[in-house]
Design a protein that fits this description.
Blueprint (H helix, E strand, L loop, with lengths): L1 E3 L5 H24 L1 H19 L11 H23 L5 H4 L2 H24 L5 E3 L4 E3 L3 H15 L8 E2 L11 E2 L5 H18 L4 H16 L7 H18 L1 H5 L5 E3 L3 H29 L13 H7 L7
Antiparallel strand pairs: 1-6, 2-3, 4-5
């Protein structure tokens, strides 16, 4: 499924991957738990880095449209989350609740568009260098399959009318964004979709951008930061793209670089898993809608599940 670059040390590859995973988790916790660390990371740091990227680092910068749009949408995401967490009392919740699902859908659509773009432009050409990805890619029907999976994932974004903030306790003063209706099955389906996208479209980064970057927020969402996966995903994504654009040599180092296997059968398989898993959560959503009579876009549908109830119990009362 993966292949080491020539000269890569397998032990070092695994160690570096674990360092990346742990660094993402620690950075997320720091920006989650400390208000002014989050402010620096998502308001001050992007300004400093933007100045560096387009001056000193311009010659090494990946400036494909997808990379740059991803950087700034991730930044806007984290800015919005920061304002919601600390200043929601001054904002009408009727508007606040639409920001997380809207920004999540926009981020998914970017990748969906990219999948369709690659599939329609390069299908059947065999391995070909793509400047937007900065690497060799193999495009084919798997790009269209995964693009459809992404659209299904957007359809399955439900229960956002129940978004709340975590109540402050002695153990956690983070005021994290809680989304009780967004449970493990959506997170897993999203991970399958996003991994398939990275594996197919950014194959030289799938070991880190795919596995590490997806696993980090998932671990936190199932442990110390339950119910806040969308926030963890936004934070880790923004912090990672800052690092990746600033230090591209780190990811391109042959000592620990890992690429996708460039095997069309594997690419088809990961995209099929993505498509089927997202079709499954949409079917489940429709089932819940019909069986409970609760519209998933105007109310919450998973209120009977233990995971929902655990997260809801951690939320503060909403004005």
């Amino acid at each position: 499924m993966f292949q080491f670059s020539y000269g890569a040390n397998p032990i070092l590859v695994v160690l570096v991957w674990m360092v990346v995973l742990c660094a993402l988790m620690v950075a997320n916790e720091l920006t989650r738990k400390f208000k002014w660390v989050g402010f620096f990371a998502f308001f001050i740091l992007p300004v400093i880095l933007t100045a560096l990227w387009f001056t000193v680092l311009r010659e090494t910068l990946y400036i494909g449209w997808f990379h740059m749009v991803k950087v700034y949408t991730a930044t806007i995401t984290c800015m919005g989350f920061w304002f919601i967490r600390y200043y929601s009392k001054k904002i009408n919740w009727k508007f606040v609740m639409f920001f997380p699902p809207a920004i999540l859908a926009i981020n998914i659509l970017q990748a969906v568009f990219r999948d369709f773009e690659l599939g329609s432009t390069y299908s059947g050409m065999g391995p070909i260098f793509n400047e937007g990805a900065g690497a060799m890619i193999i495009a084919g029907p798997w790009n269209f399959m995964n693009g459809i999976a992404g659209i299904l994932n957007i359809i399955a974004i439900t229960g956002f009318m129940g978004i709340m903030l975590r109540k402050v306790t002695d153990n956690d003063k983070s005021k994290s964004i809680l989304w009780p209706d967004m449970l493990w099955f959506f997170i897993i389906a999203y991970n399958f979709w996003n991994f398939a996208y990275v594996y197919n479209a950014i194959p030289h980064r799938s070991w880190y951008n795919g596995l590490a970057l997806l696993i980090a927020p998932t671990i936190i969402a199932f442990t110390t930061g339950k119910g806040s996966w969308v926030q963890h995903r936004g934070h880790t994504l923004a912090l990672w793209v800052y690092f990746a654009l600033t230090f591209p040599a780190f990811l391109d180092s042959s000592i620990w670089r890992v690429d996708s296997a460039y095997n069309s059968t594997i690419q088809f398989t990961v995209s099929l898993i993505s498509l089927l898993s997202n079709l499954a959560i949409v079917c489940y959503m429709v089932y819940k809608w019909k069986s409970t009579g609760r519209n998933p876009y105007t109310s919450e549908v998973n209120t009977d599940l233990k995971g929902y109830q655990e997260v809801k119990a951690m939320a503060e009362a909403r004005d």
